[in-house]
Amino acid sequence: MFSSGGESTPREVAIQLLARREYSRAELVRKLQQKSFENDDITACLDVLAEQALQSDSRFAESFVRSRIARGQGVIRIKGELRQRGIDQETLAAALAAVEEREDVDWFELARETLARRYTSLGESPKERAKRERFLASRGFNFEQIRYALTCLSDSFSQ
């Protein structure tokens, strides 16, 4: 890697990872533990990276939210995935609010667009309609957003 002795330091490994994409602190801790670094060394390394603004949970969370919105995922799934990646509730809420404001996110329209990309009709049977509902629910949309998307699909199909 970078060091001449063949052994990498926690900082070198963390920098290599962060060069590819943003990581949450918790993700970096797991990755560095997998490389058998000592917990004290990991903590010290990540504290310095955070002080130098090379690692930021809020920056990671905002980047993550934007990427998931681009994939057509709803707020419920995004929140769940951020929690799995060690992002606290306050950072999560701030990241969602910042991205929603900057990108002018409309979750109802995102649900409609996501459904329309996958399905062209509402479906002939209740079973087919339920499949569409489950699709949106698995993507992290709430009941009102799912109902809105289905209504829009129904309206566009009946015209």
UniProtKB/TrEMBL annotation:
It holds the Pfam family RecX_HTH1. InterPro entries: RecX_HTH_1st, RecX_HTH_2nd, RecX_HTH_3rd, Regulatory_RecX, WH-like_DNA-bd_sf. Residues 11-47 form the RecX first three-helical domain. It comes from the Bacteria. Modulates RecA activity. One of its GO terms (cellular component) is cytoplasm. Keywords: Cytoplasm. Residues 56-96 form the RecX second three-helical domain. It is found in: Cytoplasm. One of its GO terms (biological process) is regulation of DNA repair. PANTHER family: REGULATORY PROTEIN RECX FAMILY PROTEIN. Residues 105-150 form the RecX third three-helical domain. This is Regulatory protein RecX. Belongs to the RecX family.
